[in-house]
């Protein structure tokens, strides 16, 4: 069964930027990733879409043909997509089959076998016996959607499209709901975000990961957060918000309503948040791991690793083993994962001490760069020594005249 993320969220919350970043990140991790653009207003997304709704219908077409405004036309486009599910499933089927036949090469680190001497770059995985073909259950599809919130709160087309993908193509999907982190700076906006998150979870009925996006901008806002970041991400005791809401002139007359909304969100006990700064590797890695868990996805690069319980045999669906193992080799020499997992670190990094962290990161990248350069030099040195040895052996076999430099 292929897996996928349905990336949703209000306009400007960072969906397309995240999808593009995720595509690059997962490609670097060697995952078979495809991106599907379901936003009919985005004719030229930054990522290379494997399938785009634009080839079926565009927002402008819908507006012209039916004399609709942009919002009405957007709903029309999604309804049109729902009526053309055969088109979507055929396009997806074709894109996944193509990727299965043509997996790109896995990334290699400097000094690893194949790093310097593999010069075969033609796309021949289908005929390359040494390189395994990806399986359908390895496929990872990311769906970028429009920003109209009603599409995921009270309009049913997106929900039915998702249900059809699950039924017809066997997709395992999670909703990844991006909401701008700046909303937590204002108690009343935070309450609105909580309500939106809860409503969307109840509507879509998917495994759901809520995300406070653009967390890197929190420290730059110049405003102080009344509570630590983990208070907002864990959504534990919302009664602490009430004094803030009662102090605010705009919201004090709605004190009863606010209390009821907070009680409602707490009673459901469903809403919590991850955080995202899309250009930060640790932040992306943490989010990818959380979503992997929600999906029960074991990446192909890890699923073939031996587990303790399998005595050296590949144990492909042991998800616990996935987390017991070291991360993908691309990150094996990066910071320990635990440091990327702590909300306190995120608070320190993006809210309290962003400039110091910035300097620390730059030093770390520099050190990583030097390390990689050193490894590359070391690998080239080894190759040069090997070549010299081979030449020496050739000389020994053919006699000293062959050893004279040609100059
Ligand atoms: N600082 C910062 N800016 C971000 C981040 N993610 C997105 N942005 C910016 O936020 C703006 C909106 O991003 P988009 O990706 O277009 O948002 P969207 O949700 O796709 O918007 P719609 O498709 O219109 O609903 C862009 O200017 C991005 O550069 C982030 O993690 N940090
Ligand atoms: Mg977008």
Q: Which CATH-level-2 architecture of the largest domain?
A: 3-Layer(aba) Sandwich
CATH fold annotation of the largest domain: Rossmann fold
Molecular shape: globular
The biggest sheet, with number of strands, parallel, antiparallel or mixed sense and barrel status, is: 7 strands, parallel
- In N-to-C order, the SSE pattern is EHEEHHHEHHEHEHHHEHHHHHH
Q: Which sequence of strands runs across the widest sheet? A: 3-2-4-1-5-6-7
Output mean pLDDT: 82
Protein name: GPN-loop GTPase 2
Family: Belongs to the GPN-loop GTPase family.
Keywords: GTP-binding, Hydrolase, Nucleotide-binding
Pfam family, one: ATP_bind_1
For the structure shown, list the relevant keywords.
Gpn2; 407 residues; Gpn; hydrolase; Rossmann fold; 16 helices; 7 strands; 49% helix
Question: Explain this structure to me?
Answer:
With 407 residues, the chain is of the alpha/beta class. The protein folds into two domains: 3-299 and 323-351, 3-Layer(aba) Sandwich (Rossmann fold), CATH 3.40.50; 356-403. It is built from 16 helices and seven strands. It has helices at 15-28, 59-66, 70-83, 85-101, 150-153, 157-169, 187-204, 229-234, 241-247, 255-268, 281-295, 300-303, 319-324, 337-340, 343-352, 354-398, and strands spanning 3-8, 33-37, 51-52, 140-144, 172-180, 208-213, 273-275. It has a seven-stranded parallel beta sheet, with helices on both faces. Helix 7 links the parallel strand 5 and strand 6. Mean pLDDT is 82; it is low at 109-127 and 305-340. The structure holds guanosine-5'-triphosphate (GTP) and magnesium ion. Guanosine-5'-triphosphate binds at residues 9, 11-17, 39, 147, 213-214, 216-217, 276-278.
């Amino acid at each position: 069964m292929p897996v996928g993320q349905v990336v949703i969220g209000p306009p400007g919350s960072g969906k397309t930027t995240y999808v593009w970043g995720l595509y690059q990140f997962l490609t670097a991790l060697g995952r078979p990733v495809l991106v599907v653009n379901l936003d009919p207003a985005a004719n030229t997304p930054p990522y290379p879409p494997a399938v785009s709704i634009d080839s079926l219908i565009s927002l402008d077409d819908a507006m012209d043909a039916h004399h609709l405004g942009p919002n009405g036309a957007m709903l029309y486009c999604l309804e049109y997509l729902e009526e053309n599910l055969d088109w979507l499933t055929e396009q997806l089927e074709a894109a996944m089959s193509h990727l299965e036949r043509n997996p790109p090469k896995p990334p290699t680190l400097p000094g690893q076998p194949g790093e310097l001497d593999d010069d075969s770059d033609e796309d021949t995985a289908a005929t390359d016996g040494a390189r395994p073909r990806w399986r359908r259950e390895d496929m990872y599809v990311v769906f970028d959607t429009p920003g109209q919130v009603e599409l995921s709160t009270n309009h049913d087309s997106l929900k039915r499209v998702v249900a059809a993908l699950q039924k017809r193509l066997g997709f395992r999907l999670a909703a990844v709901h991006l909401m701008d982190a700046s909303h937590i700076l204002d108690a009343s906006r935070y309450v609105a975000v909580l309500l939106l998150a809860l409503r969307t979870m109840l509507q879509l009925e998917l495994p759901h990961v809520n995300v406070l996006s653009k967390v890197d901008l929190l420290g730059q806002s110049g405003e102080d957060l009344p509570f630590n970041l983990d208070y907002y991400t864990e959504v534990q005791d919302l009664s602490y918000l009430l004094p803030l809401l009662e102090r605010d002139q705009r919201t004090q007359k709605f004190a009863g309503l606010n209390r009821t909304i907070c009680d409602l969100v707490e009673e459901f006990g469903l809403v919590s948040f991850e955080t995202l700064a899309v250009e930060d590797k640790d932040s992306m890695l943490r989010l990818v791991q959380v979503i992997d868990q929600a999906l029960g996805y074991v990446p192909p690069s890890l699923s073939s690793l031996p587990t303790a319980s399998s005595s050296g045999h590949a144990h492909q669906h042991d998800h616990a083993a996935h987390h017991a193992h070291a991360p993908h080799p691309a990150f094996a020499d990066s910071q320990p994962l635990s440091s990327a997992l702590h909300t306190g670190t995120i608070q320190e990094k993006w809210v309290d001490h962003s400039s110091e962290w910035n300097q620390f990161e730059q030093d770390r990248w520099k050190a990583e760069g030097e390390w990689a350069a050193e490894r590359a030099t070391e690998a080239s040195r080894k190759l040069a020594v090997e070549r010299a040895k081979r030449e020496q052996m050739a000389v020994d076999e053919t006699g000293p005249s062959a050893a004279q430099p040609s100059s």
